[in-house]
Write a structure and sequence with these properties.
This protein is about 40% helix and about 20% strand. It is an alpha/beta fold and about 230 residues long. It has one domain: Vaccinia Virus protein VP39 (Rossmann fold, 3-Layer(aba) Sandwich). Strands 3-2-1-4-5-7-6 form a seven-stranded mixed beta sheet, with helices on both faces. Helix 2 runs antiparallel to helix 7 and helix 3 crosses helix 4. The relative contact order is 0.15.
């Protein structure tokens, strides 16, 4: 159900291009509206920034995380990038938007005070290269924040319920609402097979970040993993 790494960029770009018109609605439906709360927590995780802070949103999609950040940090400068143009075209025109590959960000070293992403890292063909690119464009002392799904709860019966919901109900809703069951089959499978937050935290440490921490949310279904560049 998941493409090989060599085919993943093409597959992911085509998939998100197909569902761009229903992406935000589907996120709200399948998370019970929790996606907005999660984005708000990412915005709060970067409190204390200088008013003119430069922030990069990697894999920004329709721009909802960038908007949540600007709602809380109105004086900051947010750049939203994504390699799926149909998604990016649905982001508000008031955002600074650019088409870019997360594995080869078109920015100078140490340019941003903050780099954030939401539900992007597990879609990368090479997670470690993607993280290294985010760290590269982050200035010393800057903050990296990743919001991502996890393989799910580990305790029974939550783990069993999570898998039934993700593998049975989510594809059905994807077909009914977005007319694309395959995209919403990829979503649960990519989440269930993704690395645990603790392992992702080790990748951040391996790229020179300090004060690394992971916070699981909503029964452990998603996590915010963050660190500061030394």
């Amino acid at each position: 159900m998941l493409p090989p790494a060599t085919e993943k960029p093409r597959y992911v770009a085509a998939m998100f291009g197909r569902i761009a018109w229903r992406y935000d609605l589907m996120n709200t439906l399948i998370t019970g509206g929790q996606d907005a709360r999660w984005r708000g927590l990412v915005a709060r995780a970067i409190d204390g920034l200088a008013p003119s802070a430069r922030i990069l949103d990697v894999g920004a999609g329709t721009g909802r995380l960038a908007q949540a950040i600007l709602s809380r940090h109105a004086a900051s400068h947010v750049t939203a990038v994504d390699f799926t143009v149909p998604m990016l075209e649905r982001a508000p025109r008031t955002l600074e938007r650019a088409a870019a590959d997360a594995l080869a960000l078109p920015f100078a070293d140490a340019l941003f005070d903050v780099v954030v992403s939401a539900f992007v890292v597990r879609n990368l063909a090479d997670v470690e290269v993607g993280i290294a690119e985010q760290v590269r464009v982050l200035r010393p002392g800057g903050i990296l924040v990743i919001l991502e799904t996890t393989p799910g709860p580990t305790s029974w019966p939550l783990a069993a319920l999570y898998r039934v919901y993700f593998r049975r109900l989510v594809p059905l809703v994807g077909w009914l609402v977005a007319r694309d069951a395959s995209a919403y089959t990829y979503l649960p499978e990519s989440s269930l097979r993704f690395t645990v937050p603790e392992r992702l935290a080790e990748v951040l440490r391996g790229n020179g970040l300090a004060q690394v921490r992971s916070r699981r949310l909503t029964f452990g279904c998603v996590a915010i993993t963050s660190g500061r560049k030394q």
